[in-house]
Amino acid sequence: MTQTATNSRALIPEANLDFDAIVIGAGVAGLYQLYRLRNLGMRVQLFEAGTGVGGTWYWNRYPGARFDSESYSYGYSFSQELLDEWDWSEHFASQPEILRYLQHVADKFDLYKDIQFSSEVKSATYRDDTRSWEIQLQDGSKFKCRFLITGIGLLSQPTLPKIPGIDSFKGQSFHTSRWPHESVSYSGKRVAVIGTGATGVQTIQEICKDVGHLTVFQRRPNWCAPLHNAKIEPDEMKEIRAGYEEIFETCNQTAAGFLHTADSRSTFEVSADERYEFWENLYASKGFGIWQGNFKDVLIDPKANEAMSEFVANKIRQRVEDPDTAEKLIPKDHGFGTRRVPLETRYYESYNRDNVELVDIIDTPIEKVTPDGIVTTDRSFEFDLIIYATGFDAILGSYNKIEISGVHGRRLKDQWDDELSTFLGIQINNFPNLFMILGPHALLGNNPRSIEFNVEWITDLIGHMTARNLTRAEATAEAVESWYQHVLEQGEGLLANQIDSWMTGVNSNLDGRQKRIIARYSGTQTSYRQRCNEVVESGYAELNLM
Ligand code: NA7
């Protein structure tokens, strides 16, 4: 959809707007939103806290950071030229390559000219008299716009553990997502990693090859499975390129936007031999197939889940030489796939190395950090470097960080404290003209696929409004309530929603975040997209447009 510049300019004078739209965040979401809105002929400004583009891939520079989705299923699909010219070097690209890709996108589409870096948004205030948003940056500068779009990420606010003495440590220490831009020397050093989620696993398996000694402090283990990464040879890249249409079509049809989707059979519908052969094949195949492409009941039926968990537990026992260490690495409090499955490359074999030690901090909790290292109830450890791979204030953190207020000064945080609800994960009643890309209760998974869909939906709505000189869009309270009920229904029976994890909003390092919530939409992409498309077809009947 292309609108003329004349349309958009008509939006500006009446409210003295600086921009038609402001986008927050220069990650995969924000970059694409900037591109699309600019194509509508709008004046758009993007504010980014970091000093460069990339979002997740700008911040997470820790060794070993890489895709767990196939590179060619993760990139943007909107530009044939971009697909034609970009070669991925690995099936699961590493962070430096991903960052180069996003920088290339920003260059190619001339996005830099509308991005202001080192500009963290402090507050966003809606003014109903002018139907506009006023944004204030941390440096005090203010900007007014009609539409505000957030591309601020689900996992962008890191959380550190509340351990006494954490600031007293004399050596270097940081959270993985704040890994310094300059090179960090860990070669030959005594290093601690706290946390064994997807990030901890990627870090541990990479740095163990170089450090002098690595001590891993594990609270709860996760069920990890092999990534099976490989280089993409030039001929293979040609084949991938020729198949892009099919790749994206597949991603758009699967439950969560991955190349993998659940098998139509149930676990116990097949013979034991067939079952184990299927699981062996999944264990030997690339990427998330073992999680997303398993029997259809593995993530729902406790018995099926138990059988799958036992299969993976035996793999861990086979791969880890010391039986006590193997048992410590096998989760006992949740089943396979009920938390995000970290994909690994010889992660379990890391524990067979002489320079790697696993400390179970459920058995022997950390008491404090000292200037020299870490003290548990059992021992004192000395370190040169402490790495916190302790996760994020997921889904809500990036919203809570900004003081967002809507009509009549209603604070978003207060509204969400009362009840976390949105319309399609995109809009919120009482917050007109605010659009979230992958907000709470949106469909997560292979996120760029959902991001492109969300961005295009938002762009179409804004295009629809500008074409009609409409200046205010707000989801009705009824629409929000009905989406909320739908999200709850879709989440029923899913084992993952009965387990503590970032996906259920639990974070032991934050006050008041010990209770599980339904934070994401657990239906399929097809049902999500169908619902969003129905809203468009009805002429946005569930939004108040003025
Ligand atoms: P996760 O998956 O939230 O993992 C955080 C890890 O840190 C996990 O093992 C936690 O143990 C551990 N943790 C958190 N707080 C503490 C304290 N206070 N003490 C000890 N250990 C702690 O974050 P990731 O960054 O690994 O991954 C997040 C997502 O990013 C990932 O799923 C991908 O989608 C990308 P716990 O399990 O809570 O016992």
What's the main sheet like? 8 strands, mixed
Indicate the proportion of strand residues.
15-25%
Distinct small molecules bound, one entry per kind: ligand NA7
CATH fold group of the largest domain: FAD/NAD(P)-binding domain
Helix and strand composition category: alpha/beta
End-to-end Cα distance: 21 Å
Indicate the low-confidence ranges by residue numbers: 1-13
- What is the CATH architecture assignment of the largest domain? 3-Layer(bba) Sandwich
How many H/I helical runs? 19
Q: What is the C-alpha radius of gyration, as a whole number of Å? A: 24 Å
Q: For the record, what CATH class of the largest domain applies?
A: Alpha Beta
| Fourth-level CATH superfamily of the largest domain | FAD/NAD(P)-binding domain
Features of this protein?
eight-stranded mixed sheet; binds ligand NA7; 19 helices; FAD/NAD(P)-binding domain; 546 residues; 16% strand
Short description:
The protein has 546 residues and is of the alpha/beta class. The protein has helices spanning 5-9, 28-39, 56-59, 71-74, 80-85, 95-108, 198-207, 234-242, 244-253, 272-283, 289-292, 302-319, 323-329, 347-350, 397-400, 412-418, 447-467, 477-491, 525-537; strands spanning 19-24, 44-47, 115-116, 121-127, 132-137, 142-150, 172-175, 190-194, 213-218, 225-226, 343-344, 356-360, 366-369, 373-376, 380-382, 385-388, 403-405, 434-436, 473-475, 543-545.
